[in-house]
Specification:
Layout: H1 2-19, H2 29-56, H3 58-77, H4 91-103, H5 105-119, H6 125-133
Helix pairs in contact: 1-2, 2-3
């Protein structure tokens, strides 16, 4: 569980860094492809792992979950290239970039919705009654 979360965060950061290098016309295609592939793999392997767990027990599922990433990703690690002298913006430039991003409608509108939804949420009395009487 926790190791897969860490691996997911690391994979997302690698994809995000590589997505910065995409041409303007196809920006976002790499991340979309990664998320679509992840969704397809989950839909494919969820029933397979359920069957495997039911027929062979948890040990086989754990071994398979450990071996597939190792076999698939280990050969690809040697193809990674690291930029040794990247251009680093000053803290002021970074803050200006963050402010410009927050001010864009694509960011402030969903953030505003989530904030207002949580602030103005009215407690559901039926749910509270269920929590008190049943649980």
């Amino acid at each position: 569980g926790l190791g897969f979360w860490f691996a997911d965060v690391m994979a997302d950061s690698v994809v995000a860094e590589k997505a910065k290098l995409e041409p303007e016309g196809s920006r976002g295609a790499l991340q979309s492809t990664c998320y679509a592939t992840r969704f397809f793999a989950l839909m494919l392997f969820a029933p397979i792992s359920t069957w495997l767990y039911a027929s062979h027990g948890p040990t086989s599922v754990i071994l398979l979950m450990g071996m597939i990433p190792l076999v698939v990703m280990l050969p690809l690690v040697f193809r990674f290239r690291e930029e040794f002298h990247p251009v680093v913006m000053t803290p002021r430039q970074q803050c200006n970039e963050i402010w410009k991003t927050v001010c864009s409608r694509a960011v402030w509108q969903p953030m505003g919705f989530v904030y207002l939804y949580n602030v103005l949420q009215i407690g559901n009395s039926a749910w509270k009654q269920f929590l008190v009487t049943v649980l």
